Write a sequence for this structure.
């Protein structure tokens, strides 16, 4: 049983790359507000229950508190810290970033998936699904959305990899990547203002909204960066994890082969069940408050164990079982409230489309190594697997 006063080292070590650490269920049961020490030596409180995590990410008393040393957007996003500016930015983006528009991207995403699988099949099994499909597909989609030339895709992938750094790259390398992308996006935005295309960025920089005006140059540049960082690495890693989770138990894959209509609910269950979502959301408490019976003083750093919340027995029936038919499925993987992930419609379309194409093209797909040999990626803000070896 966890000790309320004991300081635990965080993050915890899971038994395998796909399984949750045992500490989560223990803490949910007996110590939902736990004292932890991060790898950077910072002490904080860790929340593991669904209701507490949801409150933390929606309550305005908890403000963003990015881990020290992670300057993913080059210091150009100060306006994001201001609620009013942030909500105005989200309103402007949401005019164009609609579920309908994202759904219209599905044929293009399917075409990219088929092309990447064609190349993978040409090389023959075994293959690593991460670099063959998971990593390139989302950046190609983001580049299409932003109207970025195909020949610049590899540069975008390089920048994205460095932005989500915790320990994997040096500070100078991360900062240099930030400067390079900022300069690229500034020139790209200027070009779109002069000669708009039919891409999302052209629409964002030219359309004027009666209430909110239009994006300033700095906001437009930041938007390009944010879409790359949030829309690439996270989905790239999720594609590999989705395949690994579904192939880890053959009956899951067979269930989808027998009934492809389950693909949407299967994607939601993968998003809920994933125990490897990354480092966790940081928040700073701005006023004295109470969480699960524990008084928390202003100035305290609070962390959320999102994947633990997604397995809370108080909300989900048989949460440790992967149920591809689960409905409803109110997981918190995309957050909640005004700061929920703006790109969740795109992420869902990408995951559903990729899964449908994989089931169609490679029905005999299987992991090429035992689940126990899969390894987590280290040193990045978002969770992922180092390799996803497969054969067919």
């Amino acid at each position: 049983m966890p000790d309320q006063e004991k300081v635990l080292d965080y993050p915890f070590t899971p038994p395998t790359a796909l399984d949750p650490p045992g500490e989560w269920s223990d803490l949910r049961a007996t110590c939902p507000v736990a004292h932890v020490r991060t790898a950077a030596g910072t002490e904080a409180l860790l929340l593991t229950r669904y209701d507490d995590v949801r409150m933390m990410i929606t309550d305005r008393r908890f403000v963003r508190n990015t881990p020290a040393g992670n300057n993913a957007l080059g210091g150009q996003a100060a306006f994001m810290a201001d609620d009013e500016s942030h909500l105005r930015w989200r309103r402007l983006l949401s005019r164009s970033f609609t579920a309908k528009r994202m759904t219209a991207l599905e044929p293009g995403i399917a075409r990219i998936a088929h092309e990447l699988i064609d190349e993978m099949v040409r090389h023959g099994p075994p293959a690593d699904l991460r670099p063959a499909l998971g990593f390139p597909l989302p950046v190609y989609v983001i580049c299409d959305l932003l109207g970025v030339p195909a020949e610049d895709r590899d540069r975008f992938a390089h920048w994205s990899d460095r932005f989500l750094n915790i320990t994997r790259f040096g500070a100078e390398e991360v900062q240099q990547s930030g400067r390079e992308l900022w300069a690229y996006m500034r020139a790209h935005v200027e070009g779109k203002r002069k000669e708009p295309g039919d891409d999302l960025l052209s629409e964002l920089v030219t359309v004027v909204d009666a209430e909110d005006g239009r994006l300033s140059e700095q906001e437009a540049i930041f938007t390009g960066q944010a879409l790359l960082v949030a829309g690439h690495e996270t989905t790239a890693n999720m594609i590999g994890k989705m395949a690994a989770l579904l192939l880890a138990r053959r009956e899951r894959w067979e269930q989808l082969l027998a009934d492809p209509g389950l693909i949407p609910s299967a994607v939601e269950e993968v998003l809920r069940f994933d125990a490897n979502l990354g480092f966790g959301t940081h928040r700073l408490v701005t006023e004295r408050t109470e969480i699960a019976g524990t008084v928390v003083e202003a100035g305290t750093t609070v962390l959320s164990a999102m994947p633990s919340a997604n397995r809370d027995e108080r909300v989900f029936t048989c949460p440790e079982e992967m149920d591809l038919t689960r409905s409803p499925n109110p997981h918190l993987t995309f957050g909640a409230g005004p700061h929920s992930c703006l790109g969740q419609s795109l992420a869902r379309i990408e995951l559903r489309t990729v899964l449908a194409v994989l089931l169609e093209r490679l029905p005999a797909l299987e992991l090429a190594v035992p689940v126990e040999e899969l390894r987590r990626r280290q040193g990045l803000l978002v969770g992922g697997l180092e390799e996803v070896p497969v054969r067919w």
Notes: The chain has 15 helices and eleven strands.
